[in-house]
Amino acid sequence: MAGNDYLDLSTHPDIIASACKAAEEAGVGSRASALVIGRTCWHENLENKLAEFEKEESALLFPTGYAANLGTITSLVKKKDIIFSDSLNHASLIDGCRLSGAKIQIYPHSDMDFLNEKLAESKQFDRRWIITDGLFSMDGDLAKLPEICELAEKYNAGVIVDEAHGTGILGTNGRGACEELGVEEQVTVRVGTLSKGIGSLGGFVTGSKELCDWLWNRARSQIYSTALSPVLCAAAFTAIEIIENEPERRIHLSKLSRYLQNELRQLEYDIPDQIDGPIIPVILHDPLEAVTAADKLKTEGILVAAIRPPTVPQGTSRLRISLCSAHTFSDIDRLIKALQ
Q1: Does 196 qualify as catalytic in the annotation?
Q2: Which of 40, 191, 211, 217 lies deepest, with the highest CB count within 10 Å?
Q3: Statement: the pTM of the whole predicted model exceeds 0.85
């Protein structure tokens, strides 16, 4: 209960078979960056599949989700712009903001009043950008995307959303937080990863052909990195097909999450008020207590991550429980018993 393979796809036999077939035909490595000779038919097929899945015109692959955030932000945001970044954003978003050279305004987590106030004071900048995770990786809650998009329209700001933990998990069709909250058409850029719900490795951006062409020529983390392995592309392609055809995986995962949250609240564990996905933090405050609890759970055969500063703020050390669709309600009961 510590990994991000939320839909239990990394060991799916059909995905393994696709990966093996690609390895036999293309070898393991891609041999060069995408702009040289690294982009193959497997890359093209996956980009087309991602664009179709995300209901967008185009898609572009990156070697990792981290590289996708870095490359996208630094290619689109300029020094005379201002970025509004949620205080709990992932490190890859934070680093992309820093490397852009733009002015950065951190806003307290999901504080829309603060964001509105600071946006109103930002007229001197060329452009305004609001950058946020869709589903936050440590607290398990959704960004307030409808409110963010309203503010973006009011102040003529662009919105960049990292869907890393939402792809395959949230929304009627599994497209993520933006679909879940009905704001897909209002978000400027959506970034995703292949390494969590999709069970492979890599990052991607979906959007207009103009956007993807721009990133193809400007995103240094894509241009100067060796391309994804064809093996991983083939695996991800099959995984997306399974996500499309087996919605019961994310439905079961959602039921597991609600069940565990209910049990923890009844036992008065300290968990956030709003949890919207498979990530469930149990706040233990003290880092030693979190590590000790994780070690004790391990002796019971249960692997849960102990998260402490600097990954989370001081005083919020926690057990980060990550559920996957292979878990059962009996597994949840076993976890609760071990916690007690």
Answers
A1: yes
A2: 191
A3: yes
